[in-house]
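**Tokenised fold:**
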Amino acid sequence: MNTSFRLCITTKPFDVNDQSGKKIGEIDRDYWSWTPDFNYYDANNKLQAHGKTEFFSWGTTNDIDDGNGHALGTFKKEIITSLLGFGVTNRYSLLDGQGNTIGTSDKSQFLATDMTLKDNSGATIAIAHRPWFNWFGDKWDVQILEPGVVDPRVVAMLPAFKTAGDNHKSSDSGSSSPKKK
């Protein structure tokens, strides 16, 4: 996978395009799952990764496996750090396929959404940016600055999980409002 790509979440499945706009893959959601569940396919429609949110976890935990079911990485929400962010910032621990902590992902959500992945030394390894305003759906620009530190399939799944979470929250808040007649 290229080190820079755009995830266009305007379609179902979500298109993954290189910087020139050429489709290099897609991320498709399994709507028959109790939690967000995604499959990442390359341009030849070969399964490259599968991501799921754990049903029972303290906070949000997203596990990503390769096409053969081998663990690639995990994002685990750091509850205390995220609570101190007052909903504007959240922090996730980034684990490799063996469960070792290899860094963090900080999400800032003030107007635009920015996710910055850092290794254990604090160096930025990847960035995902979603502008505040999109005409239709979500468009994420993703850059992997340090290839080899984190699997790019893990990075590609992160915006899909974030968009699914936002969509779930907006549908929950809309369902509690009274219906107009």
DSSP finds two helices and twelve strands in the chain. Helices lie at 79-84, 152-175. Confidence is low (pLDDT under 50) at residues 175-181. Residues 152-175 form the longest helix (24 residues).
